């Protein structure tokens, strides 16, 4: 199996909203560095919208709220990947238009072109991009691992329920340290 590490929605504005874990970015940086050391591609996924939000429908409550707040317009400083985990030149950065990393993006094309059939998921928020991407990737028959402490959510209880109860039904769930030990073998 060929794997990729997905670093999803770890953007300045999102990190600023969900700042409950001061060690999160350094843990995620270790996962990224470990993936690179093991020759596992790191693919970044961001959420961004065109000015005027033409891709946001009024019936989509979460995205409509984002549009009202005028957040995440392409090129705005808040949409940049946080500098502590920033991509290197040549890294693939995918822009999505919905919660799932697959929706409104070319992620599936990039993965298939590289022969990647297994994904390691990290990102903010556990209840948004991670959950949505996990569901869609499962339907697309990808092998899946979720790094439980490589994900973060505004609501710690929702994060706990997802990583301890729901995600294990579809994916392997591991800590960053346990995953790093497994890929170093």
Query: Mind telling me the C-alpha Rg?
Result: 15 Å
Task: Please outline the major beta sheet.
Answer: 6 strands, parallel
- Segments where pLDDT lies below 50 for 5+ residues? none
**How many angstroms separate the termini?**
15 Å
What is the CATH H-level superfamily? Isochorismatase-like
Provide the CATH architecture: 3-Layer(aba) Sandwich
* Structural shape: globular
What is the ordering of alpha helices and beta strands?
Answer: EHHEHEHEHEHEH
Instruction: Give the domain tally.
Output: 1
Q: Which fold does the CATH topology refer to?
A: Rossmann fold
User: Number of helix segments?
Assistant: 7
DSSP strand content: 15-25%
Layout of secondary structure:
Elements: E1 3-8, H1 12-17, H2 24-37, E2 42-47, H3 61-68, E3 92-96, H4 107-113, E4 118-124, H5 126-139, E5 143-152, H6 156-166, E6 172-174, H7 176-184
Parallel strand pairs: 1-2, 1-4, 2-3, 4-5, 5-6
Helix pairs in contact: 2-7
Question: Can you walk me through this structure?
Answer:
It comes from Streptomyces palmae. Keywords: Hydrolase. The chain is α/β, with parallel strands linked by helices. It has a single domain, classed as Isochorismatase-like (Rossmann fold), CATH 3.40.50. It has 7 helices and 6 strands, in the order E-H-H-E-H-E-H-E-H-E-H-E-H. The protein has helices at 12-17, 24-37, 61-68, 107-113, 126-139, 156-166, 176-184; strands spanning 3-8, 42-47, 92-96, 118-124, 143-152, 172-174. Strand 5 (143-152), helix 6 and strand 6 (172-174) form a beta-alpha-beta unit. Helix 2 packs parallel to helix 7. The longest helix has 14 residues, at 24-37. The chain is globular and about 50 Å long. The model has no long low-confidence stretch (mean pLDDT 92).
């Amino acid at each position: 199996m060929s794997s990729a590490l997905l670093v999803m929605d770890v953007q300045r504005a999102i990190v600023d909203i969900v700042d409950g874990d001061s060690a999160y970015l350094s843990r995620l940086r270790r996962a990224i560095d470990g993936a690179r050391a093991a020759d596992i591609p790191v693919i970044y996924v961001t959420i961004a919208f065109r000015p005027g939000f033409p891709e946001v429908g009024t019936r989509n409550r979460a995205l409509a709220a984002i549009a009202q707040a005028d957040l995440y317009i392409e090129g705005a400083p808040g949409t940049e990947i946080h500098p502590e985990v920033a991509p290197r030149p040549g890294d693939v950065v995918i822009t999505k238009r919905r919660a799932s990393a697959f929706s409104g993006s070319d992620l599936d094309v990039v993965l298939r072109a590289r022969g990647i059939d297994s994904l390691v998921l990290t990102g903010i928020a556990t209840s948004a991009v991670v959950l949505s991407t996990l569901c869609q990737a499962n339907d697309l028959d990808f092998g899946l691992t979720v790094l439980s402490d490589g994900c973060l959510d505004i609501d710690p209880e929702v994060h706990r329920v997802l990583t301890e109860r729901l995600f294990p039904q579809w994916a392997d769930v591991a800590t960053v340290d346990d995953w790093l030990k497994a890929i170093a073998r």
